[in-house]
Batch of 2 targets.
Target 1
Amino acid sequence: MTTTKDQGADHGAATGAVAAGSPASDAFAHQPLWKVRLALWRRSLGKTWGLFRENKMGMFGLGLILLFACMAIAHPILMATVWDPKIYDPVTGYSAVELQFVIVEGEPTDPSTQISLQEARLRLNPTVKVGQTVTIPVQPAPPSLKGPNPHLLGTDPQGRDILSQLLYSTRAAFFLGAVAALTTVLIATTVGSIAAYFGGFIDGSLMRLSDLILLMPLLPVLILVSALFEINMVMLGLMIGVLGGFGGVAIVLKAQALSVKVKSYIDAARVAGGTHWHIVLRHIIPNVLPLSFLYMMFGVTEAIAIEATLSFFGLLNVPMTWGIMINTAQNNGYLLSGTSYWWLLFPAGLAVTFLCFGFFLVGRGMDEVINPRLRAR
Amino acid sequence: MLKFFIGRLVQMVILFVVFLSIVWLLLQLMPGDISDTLIGNPDIPMSVRLELKARLGLDQPLLQQYITYITNFFFRFDMGVSFSRFPKDVSAVLLEALPRTLVLFLSSTLFAFWLGFKTGKLIAWRRGGRSEQFLIVSGVFLQTVFYPWFAIVMLWLFGFVFGWFPIGRFITAELWLGAPFEANDIFGRLIWTVVIASVAYGIARIVIGRVAKDLVTRERLAMLLGLLVVAAVVGYWAVNPAAKFAWDIVHHTILPVITLGLVAFGAIMLLTRASMLETLGEDYILTARAKGLPDNVIRDRHAARNAMLPVATSLVLALSFVIGGGIVTETIFSWPGMGLLFLQAINVSDIPLAVGALAITGVLALVGHLVADVLYAVLDPRIRIA
Amino acid sequence: MAMMSATTRWLRLGALFAVVAMLVTACGPSGTSPSAVASAPASQAPTSEPPASEGPTGDLGTYKLGIFQDVETDNQWASADTSQNTVWNAYFLSPMTGSLYGTFMPGIEFGPVMADGDLQPTVAEGDKWIGTMKLRSGMLWSDGEPVTAADVAFTWHTVVSKDKGGVELLGPWQDFADEDVVDNVEATDDLTVKVTYNSQPGLAVWGPGTGVPQIPIMPEHYWKDIVADALTQDDPRTVLLAASGAEAPSLGATMFKDRQAGSFAASDPNPNYYDKGAEITSGGVTWTEGPYATAFQYTLYGGQDAAVLALANGEVDLLLNPLGMQRGFQDQVKENKDLTAIVNPTNGFRFLAFNHSRAPMSDHYFRDALTALIDKEFLTGNLLQGVAFPLYVILPEGNVNWYNKEVADQLATEGYAGLDTATRRKTALDLLTEGKYTWETAPTIDADGNFTPGSGIIGPDGKKIGTLRLISPTASYDPLRATAAAYIAGVAQDMGIDVVAVPTDFGKIIDIVFATNDKNEYTADYDMFILGYSLGSAAFPTFHCSFYCTTGDSNNTKYSSAAFDAAADTFNKAQTIEEAYNAMWEMEKLIAKDKPHVPLFDTGILEFYSNRVAYPFTDTLSGLQFINGNPSAVTAAK
């Protein structure tokens, strides 16, 4: 979102010239065309990577994403090796330290083995009687390393391991982000390129559509849709992708494609007898791709945030995500408990924030590579 | 200019019709009969249902149904009756909540833009400091923070731990008990004061621009004018019998506005910075420097003004954020606006009300879009000449 | 028809627990209303006592209550009609009304509220039956007008159907009006109300059940013209419901003062409250009625979190919520010396329902086997961590006057209580085998008692039983019911029955299981579901029939039993409590045997209040919210 149309356009022109492979040097003269293309592509990628590496914040973002990726991978491994599914399953697992008490009338003389009737009724239910021995589980339990089943980040109000939920949800977040971002890029690139290349009526109608979708208040529309229809993660990802892809991103990519369209090699290709589709696929789309990739990063950010918000409201029927974790804390009355139950709120809240942060930083880093003026002097 | 404005307006109306059509299509796509969705609530008596069916055109063929749906909205502002608040009309329920949402919406947008533009301008001008690094990182953080969580932390911190602001809600019941005003009247008046003050300020700025040729004088006059406007607003409310009620509303408004505004602020600041950096490389800035103009004049009059263009367009992006964030904000701060209404309607399957709230949200987005367009035209000299 | 839609509306309203609301409004007016039995009519000198001296602990100031949804009307007609019959409106509006008879909490006793003396049996007069009630003398509306029998007659004539010249109000009003049996209600003199019945009325309509004796009395002098005007319009009901009731005088402890939409509602103490200063005894507790507060304020909060913070900050005294508060707040409240937490049994139950119009759920062998497999002690004690307690009968244990421990325990044993897992499996296997079920791979129990799970159960007709969907609320909505569904699916799977738990949005469950066709019959297009009911009148449990009678308003499982219908009929026609009691337990036995629903468990209702206020009693069925926060007797704490 930090890129304006003009900035994108400048850059596209530059990379476009390289990727199109116009200056065929001697070294490449006897090699098949695809090898030349590959080598050039690799060289340009290397150069881009070099530039990106200089961007500290971008690298930090990449580091964050890698960290989350490790977390996503770690979950199935841990579940298969050290974690007993009965205890550590993010949805159905359960374990709690259980304390035994005898219910007594009045104030207990020995608080470690006795509990007052009033307290027992509050902790358990109003049917308990004096003299009864009751078991009271400690949950949500604070983080601890002790015991046979340590919960490094504690347990939630239902006695489920927070760390396991956190790791498990990472996978869901990546999955959703990937679906949404790929859909966005696929649609936006196609729409942008087609609109730019063909112009006229096609351009007009596609851009009006983009205007319209840009105007759609995304979150409210998705809330309504989730109320009208039962939606799952794939559908949600696709919807975010389609709405994002037809909207703002398509407009930006069209501007980019437009700047490519006026280059002389497009004319050359046309003169050489290239069909429309050939030109769009071979020349325009490849030149729009770097910028699409940039928007993919922002797309991931948006998708993750939207999913978390919808599940925070309890509108999505999915087993476990970061949003559901906070929703669980809310449903059990821990939402404004501040720091005393931090493990219920902060891991999930910060996970959403940092993964979005990571993708956003990478996007920004790429933006600065693409747009030299933003680089530090 | 007028022609441009009317052109955009017509375009917006057309866009809105399309938007309504999509919502209509969604309703048609729902499993079951549309009558069940829109009027099939068991507490609505059969006779009322039949009357409603005719009113909403549900007994007609599909095309006619669609036309009635659109014309009902535009010419009668009729969106049926709310299930959960029967016999109230959807439009009546929405109109009641609208001013509260507008206050939140306008103030946080203005707050975000004002603060974002100021800081963005400054950090682009003074590149490289630690403060720049810090502001950029916090800007990005604010932009990517998980908003519901952020709002909860803000409410807990400033409402409970520090106790500076009320915990949610929009008025203090004790104060308003038996008050001679309806809260909505005060809301309306607050909105009008802000709108009138902004318009007056804008017009006066233009007049000053025409009259005073000297840049420094112009700046001073503008500053004076700003103070005058603020003084006038404060003065108007100070002598107003509703002053303490207005202040009560304002006091409740501050925390949600800051929370929602801060998140939008990050994006605006980053964009202003990027845009400023772009502009600062232009030749005319070099020319201005060569002329020996003071730094702040170059920054504010030359660079910032041009850098504002993309920022103005980004209003549209910010809008969609503020609208979505508004729902979250209203829920967490117990703010009884359209967003909260929308979610409540969803939770009790009051589809007509939910659809109505969405339609009004669409109107809000469109109006915002229109404002951004006009702003763009005013700011961009090329459009003005054309 | 209308009754049915009314019920469905309540189902929706109660969205949270399941079906809250119900007759909350209905009992509301009489909820706190204390019996004037013993005490001399306080109304004889309603204003003679200075407010300050009568409070045991002095002046309370404003009594501040927190609510979670807006009070949306000031019109009493609307509040007890389906349209605005929300518990939130009732919290605010029902303390303003009064009725001749009502139920007293915490003892759940039925008795005279504004009437003079106990309700006398009806007497035959030709083919009609006549009931007579007498108002206490000297009672005044808050505007100083006398309360008369004509007000009662006016109320009845307003709510009845158009054919009888009424406005035709819906919902609870229809329960009060009982048009199918009540022929007429008239005032024979200023204080005497005469009710004419077509046939001999049972206690269900003339007694502790809902009927004319408990109809909220409306002021004729205020509403007369408005009603007359409404009757000239096309849709009188809508016109009457839309009218403002802000200026209407009240009877109860409070009277309307102000309402700011989206923020708060407020009321003042009624100087003419009919029980002002009266000493009341119920359930062994004796106290003196106030109201002691100088004002009442109902503040809207968007969520429990903000509300509990406000409670801790001293901005509010008690939070009213039909579902009680979430357990997580307990720790916060415990640390805070200014707050008190209380827990009470609820008047409700959560259950597993079978679709009786679809095989194999229609087969009692199948239902019995599945019930035998469900270890409710394990489910509540272990899986639900003791927060819930197991249920074996429908009538809540908290309803002390009606609960019969002996029968309930016997039914629990018949309902497979206290068996170990091996016995459960054996019992279920035997039942299914007896019911001629077979398996692709049969579950087996060897000589040592080791169990091997089976798969692919085949019905008695030789056809394989496919996947059975068990619809339950999602974990984010109610973790208890979601956990129960997963557990039930698990034990059924072991037995080779392919039950799959399908967590579904609450609203969608209601849409599915209460779906009706054109003729307003339930379509019952599902296999099994788990929901909860919150029940109405605790003084006279009339809900069994509405859930299980063949024509019951809420009988969405299509259960039909002639024996049950007969028992329900006996209950409804019962002339004595004993008769009704026996009939009700007969119904319970039939339910336990036939299993239209399998009651699973329930939890207590948790509430918090500020130590600034004190209540004459806090141990009361369904908590303080059930009596609207007891505005008439709340005092400042010592």
Target 2
Amino acid sequence: MTTTVNPPTPEQQEGIGVRLRHGREAVANRWHHAPRWVRWVLLAAVIVFFYALPNKEFYQYLGPIPTPGANFTQVLFTVSIYVLLAVGLNIVVGFAGLLDLGYFGFFAVGAYTVAVLTSPSSNIKTLWPWLLVVPIAIALTMVSGVMLGTPTLRLRGDYLALVTLGFAEMIRIAAVSSDFLKGQRGFNQIPHPPGKYADGKPFFGVLDARPYYWLVLTLIILVVIGVRNLTHSRVGRAWISIREDEDAAQLMGVPTFKFKLWAFASGAAIAGLAGALFAGKQNFVNSQNFELLNSIIILAAVIFGGSGNIVGAIVGGGLVAYMIERFRGIELFGVELYEYRFLFFGLVLVVMMIFRPQGLIPNRRRAAEFKDRRKEVIVGE
Amino acid sequence: MSDTEQTPAVPAQAAAPAVETVDKREPLLEVDHVTLRFGGVVALNDVDFTLYKGEILGLIGPNGAGKTTCFNAMTGIYQPTEGQIRFRGEKISGKKRHQITRMGMARTFQNIRLFPEMTALENVQVGADAHHKTSVISALLRLPRHWKEEREGREKAERLLEFVGIRPRMHEFARNLSYGEQRRLEIARALATDPVLLCLDEPAAGFNPAEKEELLQLIRQIRDTGVTVLLIEHDMRLVMGVTDRIVVLEFGKKIAEGLPAEVRDNPKVIAAYLGVPDDAA
């Protein structure tokens, strides 16, 4: 018997996708070849830009970027929450390859934990301060992640997707119908994060969304550093190996169940944090905040941006959330585009899947490679 | 042969002393009267052999003889219906796959199963991670253990890639490597788990004669580092050239066992497997 040899021939029939990729790779090459200080300066510039963005003195010069139909700083806050969620879901879906359709359920757990423990309309009336409750919310979401993951992560693929979908619906229905979670009436007077200006006015007020946005932005940076630390380590390699070939990973000594559970728990913790931030800003939480559609949007954002790539998740989450808000207040033939936002959104996704199935910024971890190659060239000469 | 069906424990223990006969060599892997059924199909029928430390054992047989099934039972993927498999004196069944790997058994796959979207280096690092303890907390906070193990793993991975001869390609994605390089990468990844026993499942499939010769060289080198090798192979010349002993399977049964020369002259084996005089050419 002869075994047929099939040398891998990647990306043969992709047409436009290939050209797009070459364009992106040229950018990536230039980025990885740039001296370290150039990269730091560029990164710092991007960060400064996003800190400055919610100021009217700045964004009024940005042409079509501000949203016509909504308060731009409020939109930025929403977008930043979506970015945080996308970064978290990217761990689960992008790195560990676990299809989680109920990610927003964890966001709900985080938000409701804060609501129940801080709001005067809660049955238990603990009225704890927001800051104290945030770690509790994160811990509880992690626990709920482990509780959901322990029985389900032994399942694979489709089953996991179904169970997580069910979980998110359970949380939502519990929120709608249980007296403890207050249904539509919801929880009001959830306290804001602490902090005062010099003149005694609270830093985190009701009208101005900017402080909340800055807070979330700062936390995004911290979370990204943490996630990056994880992915560039044994943990990240274990996750990716599970995504690539779970059986082979097990046989290479990866305790797959343990690492899948960690992926689930880490993702859940980030969603819990996002939920706590959301509750602290909104002041009010009810069952309408947690529609299933949100889970789908975040999943779409991760895939859109480039599953398995942190920058991709950030860009995907940001763009998707922003696009939805951007449609507000635009009229075409007498209909407000916002009503059809998901139609456009679907269209964009279909186009993406055809021309760029790997996402805007796909998973390429080549920084080390370029560094080493240069070293080798030097040694070789 | 035990007639008490479906009660693996008792006959297995009864058979155990017989295995440890006069042989003074140290048994590493004992396949002890293993029967494996899938429904009505008997994939392995009372297969019994022992692998000794430091040798290269060939497991051969025609297509469908049960070689890979036997392999999968040894690495804990299938549980034997009857009999048991002991590795370094411990029963394999009931152990998790990653635990078996940590006990010192590593394998490659007949149809290559690398992590295609990881670089060659990272593939090998995954293998090296088998004995690492860095967990989420130490990776998140970049504790000293992370740095230490990361450095060790990286050095080990580069050394092994050098050993199998594909170090210059270490930053290539596994899926972009040539077929031969992928086979070598699988061996390097398996070696990174520090195996006592390395199981190679048809490592020469699809190789040309020159590549096969290089592979033989590599297998011998691996043995010389103290690793015991179990080789499943189709190619008789390769098997004859490198193995110390050979076990022959046919239709799930062991039909012969012995030195390469003995096996080659065994009429049963010739009938079953070497029937066609093709190797002369």
